[in-house]
Amino acid sequence: MKASIIAGFLILSSPLAQASDLNKRQSELQAIRQQIASEQQDLHSSSQQRDKLLQLLKRDERAIGDAAKKLNQTENQLSDSQATMKKLNSQEADLTKQQAAQQQVLAKQLKSAYLAGNHDYSKMLLNQQDPATVERLLTYYQYLNKARISAIDTLKQTHDELVKVQQQAKQENERLNALAIDQRAQSKQLSAEQNQRQNTLAQLQQVIDKKASGLEQLQIEEASLKRVIEQALKAAAENPTMDGLAKSSGKLNWPTKGSIRNSFGSARSGNVRWKGVVIDAAEGQAVKAPASGKVIYADWLKGFGLLMVIDHGQGFMSLYGYSQALLKEVGDTVKTGEDIALVGRSGGQNQAGLYFEIRHKGEAENPAKYCR
């Protein structure tokens, strides 16, 4: 009883805490808006405002990632629970049918025993009937009795199994209903976080609306990614046992289904070019590891949003940006085809998609060289 009360309190307190954090971020956004309205729009103040808004965007998108990850886990549990419920319903139907058939067999045996009960065994012996006939009858009655006992035992066992399955089905149904309630609450929280993020993003775009400011922003983002790559290379050097991607040329699957929006090497802004590809895909769609490896970075990065880096060994690594949620953490080992993230719009993107890079010894390579 005490455990259920505590569990209930935790369930209730979690949305309250999330709402409190959301309200705090909304208040901070409003304060920044007022500051922008009251201050002169010189370069220094714009830079400060941009940094503040980027920090707020980072918190917004991390909150979206947490909410989306929880929703994804709940939906997977819901799917598993529905499959279990279907299996239990099938078992219950089979056992009910089996029980009915066993009852019919037992009824026939009882009827045979009743009809055979008209014989008086002592009278047969006293009347000095043929001993062989008496022996055959006794053997027949013993067989009927054993068959009847066996049928009763089998029916009892089937009944016990049926009761057990019905209890399991009831518990699974209760779990299913609880998961459905969680799913609705988490969907609502995710929607609230996405609305807050849109408000922050709209304000951020006003601050970095100028072309020069946008180019500066891209250069800052590239510098941030370069530092992450350098850190990743150091981490990868400590784990040189994996095979890399050299033998996987043209054999890997793309990490998610969709069309290429921005291709490798195409112009991005000024002299800045795309060092990976952007794949158009639906928000929330699964991102799968094209090859096995180990997660060496999983966090929010300016311009790339929720970013994951996987070490594949021999200096090869793959990067996944703009994610709605990261489903793996640093240190996790991933297998080929395993879900690692969800497609999103983090990093201030207006359109859902996946940013995907493959690097070898720190240098970006065309993912199309490896993915079919």
UniProtKB/TrEMBL annotation:
The family database entries (Pfam families) matched by this protein are listed as:
Peptidase_M23
Per the UniProt entry, the signal peptide is 1-19
Concerning InterPro entries, the annotation shows: Cell_wall_metabolism_enzyme, Dup_hybrid_motif, M23ase_b-sheet_dom
Protein keywords? Coiled coil, Signal
The superkingdom of the source organism is Bacteria
Q: Which residues form a coiled coil?
A: 22-98, 152-235
Q: Where is the M23ase beta-sheet core domain?
A: 274-367
Matching Gene3D superfamilies: 6.10.250.3150, Glucose Permease (Domain IIA)
- PANTHER family given in the database record: MUREIN HYDROLASE ACTIVATOR ENVC (PTHR21666:SF270), PEPTIDASE-RELATED (PTHR21666)
**How is this protein named in the record?**
Peptidoglycan DD-metalloendopeptidase family protein
